[in-house]
Predict the 3D structure of the following.
Amino acid sequence: MTSSNSLRLAIDGMRCAGCVAGVETALRGVPGVAEVNVNFAARTADVRGEAQVPALIAAVSKAGYRASEIIDEEAAESEKEAAELAHYRVLMRKSQFALAVAVPALAFGFPAMLGGNMPHALMQWGSPALAVLTLTVMLYSGPQFFIGAWKSLRNHTATMDTLIALGMAAAWGYSLTVTVAPRLFPAGTAEPFWDVIAVVIGLVVLGQALEMRARGRTSEAVKRLIGLKPKTARVVRDGQEIDIPLAEVRVNDTLRVRPGEKIPVDGELIEGHSLVDESMLTGEPMPVEKNVGAEVSGGTLNKSGTFLFRATRVGKDTALSRIVEMVRQAQGAKPAIGRMADTVSAWFVPAVLIVAVTTFVVWFDFGPEPRLNFAMIAAVTVLVIACPCALGLATPMSVMVGVGKAAEHGILIRNGDALQQAGQLTTVVLDKTGTVTMGKPAVTALIPAAGHDADGLLRLAASLEAGSEHPLAEAVLNAAKERGLALAPVQNFQAVAGHGVHGEIDGKHVRFGNYKFMEEHGIACDALHDQAQQSASRAETPMFLAADGMLAGIVAVADPIKPDSKTAIARLHALHIKVVMLTGDNAATAHAVAKQVGIDAVFAEVLPQDKDKQVAELIARGEKVGMVGDGINDAPALARADVGFAIGTGTDVAIESADVTLMSGSLHGVPNAIAISRATVRNIRQNLFGAFIYNVLGIPIAAGLLYPLFGLLLNPMIAGAAMAMSSVTVVSNAGRLRWFKP
């Protein structure tokens, strides 16, 4: 592993947020590790740096956990699912055994609960029997708590295991002392807690099983994406069609796909045509027509014709595999709100231990008789009710579901901060070409000046644009091709960014570009001023051509507005977001487009290198800015914005400058991403609020806060049930995001 690469480890044995801190500390201590991110919900660790895998695994093992490198994500997901199902069944058996033992233990305690004295015979024979049974419960149903606590002690840390193990050990030791030496206690106060041990361990283990079951459902988005891959592919070799495992497909293989079959890998059509359903990748419901030369993506569905295609990307390089990887990485990311919870969790268990000791001392010194009983019950209840798991799960569970929900809508979120900040945006800046418009401009009018004709005008313009990479150049070249015009050779060609192009054709110096380009070189455009204004008012871009300093005419180009741009912008307004358009086009054309789609403000005639400055100015005014562009020409502006949205095409899934990639190319991805972000952050806050309130209220009540007022002292069994359900509640609340519709 090099510093520029990363690997993922599967971590086994983590049971609370304290475990996360222990694993992260262990991995960061390995020489060569640059960055570590442990995902409690997914039980994985992403590590970046130069450390060797054996050293990482050894460090995790020394910390008391088990680690293994994830090489084949698909196989690992399948193995993890099978392992979790098996572990769920083991936990259910352990819980059932503990709760079965709880029945006689509760019956044993009924006389004392009803205010009577324990019959001597029952105490003499029943209590020793329950001592053996509850010891069996601790050894069979709850050994993981004691093993985990011992490992934590060796590593000078404290986790949820520490709390449970300490509480149960104290309860069992106290109960055994009461059974063996009842004379050490005042008459009528020697009451063992066998029922507490069995019920608490049974309920906590049951809660862990239910949590695991609910947690498994949060990764359904990744499972669905992986499930898009067919198991086999039909390869044409030596004129024969043979079915081979998907892993054996190689670049440049020729493959055949029939109607109703999934396309196995990425490639280029070389024979036939079809309609392909790409909704599973882009979220767009309409099938896309594919002809020879078109790109197809692995995992998409062939709807109609049979075709042959050449494999261009296979294995981990396919669009689908990269999407799965991006979703996994984003699901493991921690937004700022989550890092705060991690900080609290790191100090949580030590604080609870201090509270438990203080509770015991206060009850023993100042409590009513039987003081030792009250002190023991209160201290054990504090240890049992505290739940660092709920805090540890609050953020990652919601992030996993939120990122998965975004992927379902063709939205790839790169990191946790982008997920959080997208919901805080106040202004969205849109590039025009390819974002608001189709990005497929066409010549709509040729306006020659006096003494010039349309074909001659177009021939000169196309000859110059043949050397240009500007988006409008293709429109001019296509128009010339349609008219069958032969292009002239160009000498001394130069492109001036944001202005136009110029060169020598047939001995004349020809310039072609915007009005500012003509004005800077003293070329009068007054003769066609009115026509240029009319063209711009129709949302066309008038481009001027001059030969030897004299205006030769105007070539008007229009880029059709995307059909859904207007409704998408209306949705942004409904989310109380201001929409701004940023373009290098002339002001009249830009305002005409903005008027048609309902954009609030326009920055026109902005040079490519100045787009990021405009974004910076908006941020300086206190706006939270999202920039939407193609990820290439707009890369600096995307990087400068609080959140950069790149318009993809279904295969452009790794645009580095963007925080969010919209695979469908539709502007609806922006309000969808913002809505999902707001719902996810709201869900995280609900989880954190619930976890904090539960602990802030639960721990003082467990310590005896209500006893002076109402004479109530919380039973440790109720505390165990509450602790178990707090984690399940957090996981279930995060699961609600699966039903969210942006």
Observations:
- The radius of gyration is 34 Å.
- The CA atoms of residues 269 and 292 lie 5 Å apart.
- The chain has 26 helices and 26 strands.
- The longest strand covers residues 550-558.
